[in-house]
Every structure is written in structure tokens, then in C-alpha cells.
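Hello K.,

You asked for the raw outputs rather than the summary table, so here they are, unedited. I folded two proteins back to back in the same session to keep the settings identical. This is the first:
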Amino acid sequence: MKARRILLMACCLAVLSANAVLGQKVDKKRLKDISFDDVKFDIVKGAPFKRSMLTKEIEAMDGQLIRVRGYMLPSFQQSGIKKFVLVRDNMECCFGPGAAIFDCIIVEMQGSSSASFSVRPLAVEGIFTVSEFKGPDGKHLSVYAIKGRSVK
């Protein structure tokens, strides 16, 4: 009888612990390393973007402190860069033909932080947001942004 009561209490504690872990929210202040693969979603080439296309995992990253590696899209500025486009790789421009809208992230450095141009891969840290950016024709060019705090 005593062993049965102990077993029952252990089971109750296990269930309560599991519920506590499952109910935990994402710690939005804890740095999370992601890759461009983590922000992919299903979209037919040339189809218009709809926010409902994003996965639950991508939506959960909105507002999360992240670090992602990629390449800076070239500009005329070499240092003191406050805003730039981070792309998956340096072989394909996100604004060019064939690139997916999830293969680029618009980075806007916050406060006194800035970046210097490099042809090497960069690691950008900051707050990830789902933020739609459309071109003059009304088509989406990007759907992600980072409020950057550092570029290394």
C-alpha cells in the first residue's frame, strides 16, 4: 500500500513537471543561434507571400534575440553601415532572379552600433522580426528583419 502511494505521487510529480516544461515560454532574451534553413517556408516560386505561410517555429522566433550567419549584400559604403541586407550566400542576390524571399534579412543596426563591409561571412546578433518589405511594384522583397546589436 505504501509503495503504491509513493508510485502514485511520483507519477503525479512527473505529469506536473512535464506540463511545466511544455508550458514554458521561449526566453526571448536568451541568444538563439539560427541559420537561414530555420526561416524557410513553403512558397511556390512567383506566388505572393501570405503571413499564414510561416511555420509556428518561425512565428515563435519573432521578437527573439538571435545570431545568424550570412553575407552582406554589397553597397557603396565600406564602414559605419547602419542598414544592410544579409543574404544566405554570396552567389545569389535576394533581389535578383531565382532567390527566395526567405534567403535575405534586412538588418538595421541599433544605437551607436554599425557594421563594416566584408566579403567574408558575418554573424549578426539582434532581435529577429517578421517584417514585410515590398518593392515599388508591391511585391515582397523580404519578410524578415533584424534590429542589430552587433556584427562580427
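The second followed immediately with the same parameters:
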Amino acid sequence: MPKVRVIKEKGADFSFYSSSVDETKALGKKLGRALKSLDIVCLQGNLGAGKTAFVEGAARGAGFKGDVMSPSFGLVRIYRTQKLNLYHLDLFRVSELETSEIGLEDCFGDPKGASLIEWAASGRLYLPSDRLEISFEYQKEGRQISFRALGARARKLLESL
């Protein structure tokens, strides 16, 4: 399995450098193994920065075997496993005012669900205070993937990496 390199550690915050899509997926897979119901993971970064590749890895880590694709035009895809209903949301085309109309509370309230949200800032009014925030930035030939844990459960997820 490819290994990503820790490039910065500060309190509950970590940054990793990933030099390939496979490394990004491997990091996601590790997180996916640790996901539990009601976990919320927020993903931020430019188009093509690696968010969907990371989610694909997380879905594999949670036990999903099918195709993982960006939900850009459908807003949400659900990857069902024995362990979880993994909600993959993309709020890129949703304004903050529209988030009350798309049923975020249904995803976040599923007792067997965990949510990975691309462009999560649009839904910030509905986000729980305990969440893991991940940002993806282009760096030279790869990506810097930075994690910020907000809350006790998010810190446990971060420790799993």
C-alpha cells in the first residue's frame, strides 16, 4: 500500500503530502476503516484536487465494492455496506440558502450513516460541531491534504490515521 508522508503536525491538526492518486485513495481507505455511524467529514479543495479519489478510498475502507463517482449533478450518492450507509454529498452547486431544501438532516441523522461532504461550506448551518475537516491543495507534483479535528469523535478519526 502506498504511504503518504506526514509533513506537519500541530495539536489535533495534521498535513500529509500525497504524490499520487493511489496514495490519496490509500489515505482515504484508512479513514474509511475507522468511520462509524454519524461521523461527518467535510472536504474542501479546488476541482480536481483529490476529494473524490479520497472518498473512493474511504468507501473501499468501509467495505463498498461498487463504483464511486462524484455526485456533482445528483448532490448525493449512497454507498451501502454491512457496516454503514456512506453518504457522499457534493454541495458545489448549492448555495447556503438552498441547503435547507435538500435534506441534509436526513443524511446526518441516519443512525447507520456517515457523511463525506465535498464543498461542505454551503451546508455549514447544518454541520455538527464534532466533525473532521479535510482540505486538499495542489503542491508541486502532488497534493497537501490537511486535517482539522473539531470535537472528540473527530480527534479519534484523526488518530486512526
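The radius of gyration is 14 Å.

Happy to rerun anything if the numbers look odd on your end.

Regards,
P.
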